[in-house]
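User: What would this chain look like folded?
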Amino acid sequence: MGKSEKEVERLRRLQEQLIAVGVSEEVISYLLSKRPSKVLSSIHDFLVLFVMIIGFGVGVLLWGIESAFSERAALEHAYQTDGLLYQDIMGFSLLVAIFGWIFASGYISSSPRLVSSRMIASAFSHSITRTDKYGRPWHKAYSKIDKTQEPEDVVREVFSRQGAWAKWPAILLLFLVCPPLLDLELKAHEIFARDGVIKRSYLLTGDWNKTLWNDAIFVELGCNHITGKNPSDDPVYKVTFMDGHSERLENAKPVTGEWLDQIEIIDGVLAEAGVEFRRWQWGDRNPLHPECLAANRSKMSAGDYGRLLKLLRVD
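Assistant: Here's the prediction, encoded as C-alpha coordinates.
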Protein backbone atom coordinates (compact mmCIF):
# COMPACT_ATOMS: atom_id res chain seq x y z
CA MET A 1 0.00 0.00 0.00
CA GLY A 2 1.49 3.35 -1.06
CA LYS A 3 1.79 6.42 1.11
CA SER A 4 -1.30 8.08 -0.39
CA GLU A 5 -3.31 4.90 0.05
CA LYS A 6 -2.28 4.66 3.70
CA GLU A 7 -3.35 8.26 4.21
CA VAL A 8 -6.74 7.58 2.61
CA GLU A 9 -7.20 4.52 4.80
CA ARG A 10 -6.21 6.47 7.92
CA LEU A 11 -8.72 9.22 7.19
CA ARG A 12 -11.41 6.64 6.41
CA ARG A 13 -10.94 4.99 9.82
CA LEU A 14 -10.99 8.39 11.50
CA GLN A 15 -14.21 9.23 9.63
CA GLU A 16 -15.82 6.07 10.98
CA GLN A 17 -14.75 6.92 14.51
CA LEU A 18 -16.18 10.44 14.21
CA ILE A 19 -19.47 9.09 12.88
CA ALA A 20 -19.58 6.61 15.77
CA VAL A 21 -19.43 9.38 18.38
CA GLY A 22 -22.14 11.43 16.66
CA VAL A 23 -20.19 14.14 14.85
CA SER A 24 -22.21 15.60 11.97
CA GLU A 25 -21.31 14.97 8.34
CA GLU A 26 -20.61 18.68 7.73
CA VAL A 27 -18.16 18.86 10.63
CA ILE A 28 -16.50 15.60 9.57
CA SER A 29 -16.06 16.90 6.05
CA TYR A 30 -14.42 20.05 7.39
CA LEU A 31 -12.14 18.07 9.70
CA LEU A 32 -10.96 15.69 6.98
CA SER A 33 -10.20 18.63 4.70
CA LYS A 34 -7.63 19.75 7.30
CA ARG A 35 -5.90 16.35 7.28
CA PRO A 36 -5.97 15.94 11.08
CA SER A 37 -2.81 14.42 12.49
CA LYS A 38 -2.33 12.34 15.61
CA VAL A 39 1.11 13.89 15.99
CA LEU A 40 -0.33 17.42 15.99
CA SER A 41 -2.96 16.34 18.49
CA SER A 42 -0.23 15.03 20.79
CA ILE A 43 1.74 18.24 20.33
CA HIS A 44 -1.30 20.21 21.43
CA ASP A 45 -1.55 18.04 24.54
CA PHE A 46 1.94 19.23 25.49
CA LEU A 47 1.38 22.81 24.34
CA VAL A 48 0.09 23.89 27.71
CA LEU A 49 3.25 22.51 29.33
CA PHE A 50 5.39 24.32 26.77
CA VAL A 51 3.60 27.61 27.44
CA MET A 52 4.06 27.05 31.19
CA ILE A 53 7.80 26.53 30.77
CA ILE A 54 8.10 29.77 28.79
CA GLY A 55 6.19 31.59 31.53
CA PHE A 56 8.37 30.11 34.27
CA GLY A 57 11.47 31.23 32.35
CA VAL A 58 10.09 34.75 32.20
CA GLY A 59 9.22 34.43 35.89
CA VAL A 60 12.83 33.68 36.80
CA LEU A 61 13.89 36.83 34.96
CA LEU A 62 11.20 38.91 36.67
CA TRP A 63 12.18 37.42 40.04
CA GLY A 64 15.66 38.87 39.62
CA ILE A 65 14.27 42.26 38.61
CA GLU A 66 11.78 42.31 41.49
CA SER A 67 14.51 41.30 43.96
CA ALA A 68 16.69 44.17 42.80
CA PHE A 69 13.87 46.72 43.10
CA SER A 70 12.78 45.37 46.49
CA GLU A 71 16.29 45.47 47.90
CA ARG A 72 16.94 48.95 46.52
CA ALA A 73 13.73 50.27 48.10
CA ALA A 74 14.67 48.77 51.46
CA LEU A 75 18.23 50.05 51.29
CA GLU A 76 17.13 53.59 50.37
CA HIS A 77 14.69 53.60 53.29
CA ALA A 78 17.44 52.34 55.59
CA TYR A 79 19.70 55.22 54.57
CA GLN A 80 16.89 57.71 55.23
CA THR A 81 16.22 56.35 58.73
CA ASP A 82 19.82 55.72 59.85
CA GLY A 83 19.26 51.99 59.66
CA LEU A 84 22.00 49.52 60.53
CA LEU A 85 20.42 46.39 59.05
CA TYR A 86 17.51 45.83 56.67
CA GLN A 87 15.40 42.92 55.48
CA ASP A 88 13.26 42.94 52.36
CA ILE A 89 10.23 40.68 52.11
CA MET A 90 9.09 39.36 48.75
CA GLY A 91 7.90 36.28 46.91
CA PHE A 92 4.13 36.14 47.48
CA SER A 93 3.32 38.13 44.35
CA LEU A 94 5.48 35.81 42.26
CA LEU A 95 3.73 32.78 43.75
CA VAL A 96 0.38 34.31 42.78
CA ALA A 97 1.75 35.04 39.31
CA ILE A 98 2.87 31.41 38.92
CA PHE A 99 -0.64 30.12 39.66
CA GLY A 100 -2.07 32.80 37.39
CA TRP A 101 0.24 31.71 34.60
CA ILE A 102 -0.77 28.06 35.05
CA PHE A 103 -4.37 29.09 34.42
CA ALA A 104 -3.31 31.38 31.58
CA SER A 105 -1.39 28.51 29.96
CA GLY A 106 -4.55 26.45 29.84
CA TYR A 107 -6.48 29.31 28.30
CA ILE A 108 -3.77 30.26 25.78
CA SER A 109 -3.25 26.70 24.57
CA SER A 110 -7.00 26.46 23.83
CA SER A 111 -7.37 29.82 22.12
CA PRO A 112 -8.37 29.41 18.44
CA ARG A 113 -6.71 32.73 17.66
CA LEU A 114 -3.31 31.44 18.74
CA VAL A 115 -3.42 27.87 17.38
CA SER A 116 -3.39 26.81 13.73
CA SER A 117 -6.61 25.50 12.19
CA ARG A 118 -4.97 22.16 11.40
CA MET A 119 -3.86 21.68 15.00
CA ILE A 120 -7.37 22.59 16.16
CA ALA A 121 -8.86 20.04 13.78
CA SER A 122 -6.30 17.43 14.89
CA ALA A 123 -6.99 18.00 18.59
CA PHE A 124 -10.75 17.88 17.99
CA SER A 125 -10.67 14.73 15.85
CA HIS A 126 -8.36 12.67 18.06
CA SER A 127 -9.88 13.83 21.36
CA ILE A 128 -13.60 13.58 20.70
CA THR A 129 -13.15 10.02 19.42
CA ARG A 130 -11.69 8.93 22.76
CA THR A 131 -14.00 7.13 25.16
CA ASP A 132 -11.95 7.68 28.31
CA LYS A 133 -12.00 10.62 30.72
CA TYR A 134 -9.87 12.73 28.37
CA GLY A 135 -12.53 12.59 25.68
CA ARG A 136 -15.48 13.43 27.92
CA PRO A 137 -14.96 17.23 28.01
CA TRP A 138 -14.95 17.26 24.19
CA HIS A 139 -18.13 15.17 24.03
CA LYS A 140 -19.80 17.44 26.59
CA ALA A 141 -18.80 20.64 24.78
CA TYR A 142 -19.93 19.28 21.40
CA SER A 143 -23.30 18.22 22.77
CA LYS A 144 -24.04 21.71 24.12
CA ILE A 145 -23.06 24.03 21.28
CA ASP A 146 -25.20 25.38 18.45
CA LYS A 147 -24.57 23.00 15.56
CA THR A 148 -26.27 25.23 13.03
CA GLN A 149 -23.08 27.26 12.86
CA GLU A 150 -20.51 26.81 10.14
CA PRO A 151 -18.52 23.58 10.67
CA GLU A 152 -15.32 25.54 11.28
CA ASP A 153 -17.04 27.62 13.97
CA VAL A 154 -18.35 24.46 15.63
CA VAL A 155 -14.86 22.97 15.81
CA ARG A 156 -13.28 26.22 17.05
CA GLU A 157 -15.90 26.69 19.75
CA VAL A 158 -15.55 23.15 21.08
CA PHE A 159 -11.77 23.61 21.06
CA SER A 160 -11.92 26.95 22.91
CA ARG A 161 -14.22 25.56 25.58
CA GLN A 162 -11.48 23.17 26.71
CA GLY A 163 -9.58 26.08 28.25
CA ALA A 164 -12.40 28.56 28.86
CA TRP A 165 -12.52 27.60 32.55
CA ALA A 166 -9.03 29.10 33.04
CA LYS A 167 -9.74 32.56 31.63
CA TRP A 168 -11.16 34.35 34.66
CA PRO A 169 -8.86 32.76 37.29
CA ALA A 170 -5.92 33.85 35.13
CA ILE A 171 -7.25 37.41 34.81
CA LEU A 172 -8.04 37.58 38.54
CA LEU A 173 -4.61 36.40 39.68
CA LEU A 174 -2.40 38.06 37.06
CA PHE A 175 -4.10 41.43 36.71
CA LEU A 176 -6.20 42.02 39.84
CA VAL A 177 -4.24 40.34 42.65
CA CYS A 178 -0.59 40.22 41.58
CA PRO A 179 0.07 43.94 40.79
CA PRO A 180 -1.23 45.40 44.11
CA LEU A 181 0.47 42.57 46.01
CA LEU A 182 3.74 43.37 44.25
CA ASP A 183 3.30 47.04 45.14
CA LEU A 184 2.85 46.09 48.78
CA GLU A 185 5.89 43.80 48.71
CA LEU A 186 8.11 46.61 47.48
CA LYS A 187 7.14 48.45 50.66
CA ALA A 188 7.22 45.41 52.94
CA HIS A 189 10.71 45.65 54.31
CA GLU A 190 12.03 46.04 57.84
CA ILE A 191 14.72 48.42 59.03
CA PHE A 192 16.74 47.66 62.15
CA ALA A 193 17.97 51.03 63.37
CA ARG A 194 20.05 51.99 66.39
CA ASP A 195 16.97 52.68 68.52
CA GLY A 196 14.45 50.16 67.19
CA VAL A 197 12.66 48.28 64.40
CA ILE A 198 10.89 50.22 61.64
CA LYS A 199 8.17 48.30 59.78
CA ARG A 200 4.62 48.49 58.49
CA SER A 201 1.64 46.71 59.97
CA TYR A 202 1.14 43.04 59.15
CA LEU A 203 -1.30 44.01 56.41
CA LEU A 204 1.44 46.25 54.96
CA THR A 205 -1.04 49.04 54.33
CA GLY A 206 -0.56 51.26 57.36
CA ASP A 207 2.03 53.84 58.32
CA TRP A 208 5.59 53.02 59.23
CA ASN A 209 5.89 52.28 62.95
CA LYS A 210 8.93 51.99 65.16
CA THR A 211 9.24 49.50 68.01
CA LEU A 212 12.02 50.54 70.37
CA TRP A 213 14.69 48.12 71.51
CA ASN A 214 13.84 49.34 75.04
CA ASP A 215 10.50 47.53 74.65
CA ALA A 216 12.22 44.16 74.21
CA ILE A 217 11.85 41.66 77.06
CA PHE A 218 14.42 39.04 76.04
CA VAL A 219 16.85 38.02 73.32
CA GLU A 220 17.42 34.39 72.33
CA LEU A 221 20.90 33.47 71.14
CA GLY A 222 22.20 30.32 69.51
CA CYS A 223 23.76 28.61 66.52
CA ASN A 224 21.36 26.59 64.40
CA HIS A 225 22.79 23.52 62.65
CA ILE A 226 20.47 22.36 59.84
CA THR A 227 21.12 19.25 57.74
CA GLY A 228 19.33 17.78 54.73
CA LYS A 229 18.69 19.25 51.30
CA ASN A 230 19.26 22.84 52.46
CA PRO A 231 21.94 22.64 55.13
CA SER A 232 22.97 25.77 56.99
CA ASP A 233 24.85 26.89 60.08
CA ASP A 234 23.57 30.33 60.99
CA PRO A 235 23.72 32.23 64.25
CA VAL A 236 20.39 32.89 65.93
CA TYR A 237 19.56 36.39 67.19
CA LYS A 238 15.87 36.58 68.06
CA VAL A 239 14.42 39.59 69.89
CA THR A 240 11.00 39.28 71.57
CA PHE A 241 9.04 42.40 72.55
CA MET A 242 6.44 43.19 75.20
CA ASP A 243 3.57 42.87 72.72
CA GLY A 244 4.59 39.26 72.02
CA HIS A 245 5.98 39.67 68.51
CA SER A 246 9.59 38.79 67.73
CA GLU A 247 12.22 39.77 65.17
CA ARG A 248 14.95 37.57 63.73
CA LEU A 249 18.06 39.57 62.90
CA GLU A 250 20.49 36.88 61.79
CA ASN A 251 19.45 37.08 58.12
CA ALA A 252 19.24 40.86 57.93
CA LYS A 253 21.61 42.62 55.53
CA PRO A 254 23.99 45.36 56.66
CA VAL A 255 23.47 48.86 55.30
CA THR A 256 27.23 49.38 55.48
CA GLY A 257 30.13 47.21 56.61
CA GLU A 258 29.50 43.68 57.86
CA TRP A 259 26.56 42.11 59.67
CA LEU A 260 28.66 41.57 62.79
CA ASP A 261 29.59 45.27 62.93
CA GLN A 262 25.94 46.37 62.90
CA ILE A 263 24.49 43.69 65.16
CA GLU A 264 27.05 44.54 67.85
CA ILE A 265 25.68 48.11 67.96
CA ILE A 266 22.10 46.85 68.40
CA ASP A 267 23.29 44.26 70.93
CA GLY A 268 24.94 47.00 72.97
CA VAL A 269 21.71 49.04 73.04
CA LEU A 270 19.74 45.99 74.20
CA ALA A 271 22.28 45.17 76.89
CA GLU A 272 22.29 48.76 78.12
CA ALA A 273 18.49 48.65 78.34
CA GLY A 274 18.75 45.67 80.69
CA VAL A 275 17.10 43.18 78.32
CA GLU A 276 17.51 39.54 79.35
CA PHE A 277 19.73 37.36 77.13
CA ARG A 278 18.90 33.68 77.10
CA ARG A 279 19.77 30.57 75.15
CA TRP A 280 17.62 29.91 72.06
CA GLN A 281 15.34 26.86 72.25
CA TRP A 282 13.65 24.99 69.42
CA GLY A 283 12.40 21.47 70.05
CA ASP A 284 15.25 19.14 70.89
CA ARG A 285 17.90 21.00 68.87
CA ASN A 286 21.23 21.80 70.40
CA PRO A 287 21.11 25.62 70.73
CA LEU A 288 24.89 25.79 70.36
CA HIS A 289 25.62 22.88 68.06
CA PRO A 290 29.38 22.22 67.84
CA GLU A 291 29.21 21.72 64.07
CA CYS A 292 27.46 25.07 63.67
CA LEU A 293 30.13 26.82 65.68
CA ALA A 294 32.86 24.99 63.78
CA ALA A 295 31.33 26.00 60.43
CA ASN A 296 31.35 29.66 61.44
CA ARG A 297 34.89 29.41 62.78
CA SER A 298 36.08 28.02 59.44
CA LYS A 299 34.78 30.98 57.44
CA MET A 300 35.71 33.79 59.83
CA SER A 301 38.94 35.32 61.02
CA ALA A 302 40.01 34.48 64.57
CA GLY A 303 39.11 38.00 65.70
CA ASP A 304 35.63 37.95 64.10
CA TYR A 305 34.94 34.48 65.48
CA GLY A 306 35.80 35.71 68.95
CA ARG A 307 33.38 38.61 68.46
CA LEU A 308 30.66 36.15 67.38
CA LEU A 309 31.18 34.03 70.50
CA LYS A 310 30.93 37.15 72.65
CA LEU A 311 27.73 38.18 70.82
CA LEU A 312 26.22 34.73 71.44
CA ARG A 313 27.35 34.78 75.10
CA VAL A 314 29.48 31.67 74.69
CA ASP A 315 32.04 31.34 77.47
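The longest strand covers residues 216-226. If you want, I can go into more detail on any region.
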